[in-house]
């Protein structure tokens, strides 16, 4: 009954709706949305992340603090032995020895002497140029250079140093600025006016490079306040003295050890000139005898050793394969600026006779000298110039067929003696003349290798009938006797000096150095053989003409050949040996040392050019 009633009601509603629809506008359709939820199982893949702590153990090489410090430190042999006054840091004070860091780490030069290229490389300076007749020179300094205390390096410092040398002739300085007027153009420019034209003004005043003859610019702002530059020691740690421009500062000094620390504020970095050198410390240390020093470098306590004997060098190379030198084979070393010669006193007969000097030359077996005295590690010499690359051009111009100075002929030597009236005394084995035996005392200063060299030479002269004996003297006595012309024959190096140009060595034999008999000579490079006579005068005139030309001038060639023609006619000196300088370098801690295969600079330790080595060294890989 109930369902029927519901059905009736539904029909009535539908009818009403149809009626309304017919009577009115069409209605807007309605959309009825229904959400139907259907439950269904769907398989899902789930990745489960599990965090787990893992401990990894890495083995690290244990290096103690001493070894770490060693790898930062360059240790150099203190060439020359104990330093008597380790608190003397004036480069111009008597008794100074600038080889223990002054020239290599503290003071920088205006120009570097590069004997590989034969040029003066600019350093604190940028250039130096002359006027047309070489009577005026203009020096231009590098911009941005500073002293270690932060003060600007400028023209005032150069002018102050030059005038200090001029005004105090008792300073320990071999440089001559007499007759030179110096003036400031601006902060970076200095002008020099000379009384006499000098084409070698730059080379002779600012291009020597050796510790004993360098031009050391001093800081005007410190030195101007000192009462006496002759006695000023330039040492006060509380004030930070000494002050120079170099990349290292002095940390400590004693008689046997000098320590320098790198100045990380060195001017060269900011100026864009050079990077800092790699070694953070540089130490100069003296271990004593050659044997102890050789042992030190062999066990890596030294990175460089000064001037060992050839035998010592060969021994250390056997003990340590990382030790090298300039050459990999004999003579191993770089050429010394001072060749070893047999010098004669020309005021003593019979050595005033050129033919007698030539006779002695023929008695000399240079190969034997090299083999015995140098253990084969040297080269025979036939000229007074060192065999540097820049000088080889001139040596090659000499006609050695005309002057066979390297000829060994004992019989020829004897025939010359006999032509001079000497007769052999068969009982003594020596020549005699007018009841006088042909004798010679050959003097040398105390030096292990030169002692041996002289010993062999004495035997060679005895073998041709000269009663030769050896006399070994202390260096002070030798020098005093040398400049006062008290030596008869002596082994020395009067011609020492030339590096880029032959003039300095040639001038050492010029007659301009000779004064009245009995008057001491100015130095031991001032014609100490006292060569004189017609050929000597003609030679000296030609050398003077060479001195008027700038280094490298093509006109020098002809003058050189003519001058050497007179030199070899008289043979004032008998050349013996091109002395090798062996600088052993240890590659255990530091690499990129100079060598013949890596010739960026000469290998000398006591030259200002050692700065270039410092800037090229690289730490070895552990």
What's the quick description here?
The protein has 622 residues and is of the alpha+beta class. It contains 19 helices and 25 strands.
Describe, in plain words, how this protein is organized in 3D:
- This protein has 622 residues and is of the alpha+beta class.
- It folds into 2 domains: 67-333 and 582-619, D-Maltodextrin-Binding Protein, domain 2; 334-580, Dipeptide-binding Protein, Domain 3 (Dipeptide-binding Protein, domain 3), CATH 3.10.105.
- Residues 1-42 and 44-50 have low confidence and may be disordered.
- A hairpin with a 2-residue loop joins strand 6 and strand 7.
- The chain contains 19 helices and 25 strands.
- The chain has a 6-stranded mixed beta sheet with strand order 14-21-13-20-18-19. Strands 1-10-9-8 form a 4-stranded mixed beta sheet.
- The chain starts with a helix and ends with a strand.
- The chain is globular.
List the helices and strands and how they pair.
Layout: H1 2-23, H2 65-72, E1 73-77, H3 102-106, E2 111-114, E3 119-122, E4 125-130, E5 136-141, H4 155-167, E6 180-186, E7 189-194, H5 201-206, H6 220-223, E8 248-253, E9 257-262, H7 267-270, E10 281-285, H8 290-298, H9 310-319, E11 323-324, E12 334-335, E13 340-344, H10 354-363, H11 366-373, E14 379-380, H12 389-395, H13 410-419, E15 423-425, E16 430-433, E17 436-437, E18 439-445, H14 448-463, E19 467-473, H15 475-483, E20 489-492, H16 503-507, H17 534-547, H18 555-570, E21 573-578, E22 580-581, E23 585-586, E24 590-591, H19 610-616, E25 618-619
Parallel strand pairs: 1-10, 18-19, 18-20
Antiparallel strand pairs: 2-3, 4-5, 5-7, 6-7, 8-9, 9-10, 11-23, 12-22, 13-20, 13-21, 14-21, 15-16, 16-17, 24-25
Helix pairs in contact: 8-9, 10-13, 11-14, 17-18
């Amino acid at each position: 009954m109930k369902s029927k009633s519901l059905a009736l009601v539904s029909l009535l509603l539908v009818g009403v709706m149809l009626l309304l629809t017919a009577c009115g506008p069409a209605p807007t359709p309605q959309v009825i949305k229904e959400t139907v939820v259907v439950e269904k199982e769907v398989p899902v893949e789930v990745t489960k992340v599990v965090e787990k702590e893992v401990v990894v153990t890495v083995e690290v090489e244990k290096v103690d603090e001493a070894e770490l410090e060693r790898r930062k430190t360059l240790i150099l042999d203190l060439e020359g032995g104990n330093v008597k006054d380790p608190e003397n840091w004036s480069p111009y004070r008597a008794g100074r020895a600038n080889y223990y860091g002054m020239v290599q780490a503290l003071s920088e030069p205006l120009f570097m002497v590069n004997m590989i290229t034969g040029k003066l490389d600019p350093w604190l300076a940028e250039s130096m140029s002359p006027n047309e007749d070489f009577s005026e020179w203009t020096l231009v300094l590098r911009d941005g250079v500073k002293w270690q205390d932060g003060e600007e390096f400028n023209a005032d410092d150069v002018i102050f140093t030059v005038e200090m040398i001029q005004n105090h002739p008792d300073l320990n300085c071999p440089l001559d600025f007499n007759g030179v007027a110096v003036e400031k153009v601006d902060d970076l420019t200095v002008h020099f006016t000379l009384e006499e034209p000098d084409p070698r003004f730059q080379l002779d005043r600012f291009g020597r490079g050796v510790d004993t003859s360098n031009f050391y610019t001093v800081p005007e702002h410190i030195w101007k306040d000192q009462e006496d530059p002759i006695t000023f020691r330039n040492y006060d740690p509380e004030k930070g003295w000494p002050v120079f421009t170099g990349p290292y500062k002095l940390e400590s000094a004693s008689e046997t050890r000098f320590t320098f620390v790198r100045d990380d504020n060195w001017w060269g970095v900011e100026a864009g000139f050079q990077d800092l050198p790699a070694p953070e410390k540089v130490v100069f240390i003296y271990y004593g005898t050659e044997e102890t020093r050789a042992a030190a470098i062999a066990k890596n306590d030294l990175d460089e050793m000064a001037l060992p004997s050839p035998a010592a060098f060969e021994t250390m190379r056997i003990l340590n394969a990382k030790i090298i030198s300039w050459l990999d084979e004999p003579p191993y070393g770089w050429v010394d600026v001072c060749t070893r010669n047999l010098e004669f006193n020309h005021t003593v007969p019979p050595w005033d006779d050129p033919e007698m000097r030539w006779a002695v030359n023929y008695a000399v077996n240079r190969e034997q000298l090299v083999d015995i005295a140098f253990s084969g590690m040297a080269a025979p010499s036939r000229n007074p110039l060192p065999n540097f690359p820049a000088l080889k051009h001139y040596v090659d111009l000499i006609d050695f067929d005309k002057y066979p100075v390297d000829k060994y002929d004992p019989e020829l030597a004897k025939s010359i003696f006999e032509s001079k009236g000497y007769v052999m005394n068969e009982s003594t084995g020596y020549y005699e003349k007018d009841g006088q035996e042909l004798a010679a005392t050959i003097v040398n200063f105390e030096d292990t290798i030169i002692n041996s060299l002289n010993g062999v030479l004495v035997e060679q002269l005895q073998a041709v009938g000269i009663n030769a004996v050896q006399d070994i003297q202390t260096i002070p006595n030798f020098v005093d006797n040398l400049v006062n012309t008290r030596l008869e024959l002596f082994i020395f190096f009067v011609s020492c000096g030339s590096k880029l140009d032959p003039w300095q060595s040639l001038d050492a034999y010029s007659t301009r150095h000779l004064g009245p008999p009995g008057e001491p000579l100015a130095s031991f490079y001032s014609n100490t053989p006292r060569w004189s006579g017609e050929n000597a005068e003609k030679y000296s005139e030609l050398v003077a003409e060479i001195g008027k030309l700038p280094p490298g001038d093509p006109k020098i060639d002809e003058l050189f050949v003519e001058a050497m023609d007179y030199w070899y006619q008289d043979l004032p000196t008998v050349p013996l040996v091109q002395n090798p300088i062996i600088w052993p370098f240890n590659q255990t801690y530091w690499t990129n040392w100079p060598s013949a295969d890596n010739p960026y600079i000469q290998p000398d330790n006591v030259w200002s050019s050692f700065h270039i080595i410092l800037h090229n060294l690289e730490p070895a890989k552990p």
